[in-house]
Each structure stands twice: as structure tokens, then as C-alpha cells.
Amino acid sequence: MFSRSGIIRKAPPIITTGAGDLKFAGHDLQVDYEITGQMRTLASAHVPLRGLLRTAPDVAEALFRAGEAALTLDDGRGCRIRMLGYTSGSDTAYFEIRI
Predict the structure, then answer these.
(1) Which of 17, 74, 77, 90 would you label with 42, given CA atoms 20 to 30 Å apart?
(2) Rounded alpha-carbon distances, angstroms, from residue 21 to 69, 73, 77
């Protein structure tokens, strides 16, 4: 898109939010998630999408230590996630996702 000044402006990324079921290492619980990018292109994407999830701080830490988990999105789609980051005491963990 061009603005009046002729500078190209990039559209903000699409963010998909929802509540999903998370399963890993003896845990089975519901979490809130945000995924940056278009979910419909995930199967054909060469680069995984990234996102974050929010849960209790002790669960977020255990999830990060586990490294991988299964996340079922609110539309019923099952995905494998790989953990990328977590800050001690935080309720947020960051991941990348592939179908």
C-alpha cells in the first residue's frame, strides 16, 4: 500500500487468538494462545508460524522445559508446537507451530 507521501506501508500481521487444549508430559489443560500469521497458509508455509500461550507460571515453566507439546486449536485442528522462550515467573511461553 502507498500512502500520500509515497512510502510503502506494510500491513500488520494477522493474529489468531483462541483457547485450546495443551498436552505435554503428564499435563492436559486449557490455555489461551495467539498465533502470528495466517493459519490457512500454515500447511504450505516453508517457515513455521510463531505464537505465544498464557497459562499458570509453573505450567509455562514445565512446558518450556518439556520443549514440545500438542496444541489443539479452538477450531479442532491439532498442531505440534516447539517451545522457543520463557521468562522465569511469567505466565507466557513462546513457540513455533507446524501442522
Answers:
(1) 90
(2) 10, 7, 10
pTM exceeds 0.85 for this model: no
Nearest to 31 by CA among 62, 10, 1, 65: 62
Fill in the DSSP letter of residue 64.
Answer: H
**Domain spanning 15-98 has what CATH number?**
2.40.10.10
**pLDDT of 1 above 80:** no
Cell numbers linked to 54: 498464557
Q: Where are the domains of the chain?
A: 15-98
pLDDT in tens, 9-47: 888 888 999 999 999 999 999 999 999 988 776 666 677
User: What residues have CB less than 8 Å from 29, skipping those under 6 apart?
Assistant: 21, 22, 55, 59
Quote helix, strand, coil % in the chain, to nearest 5. 15, 50, 35
pLDDT at 48: 84
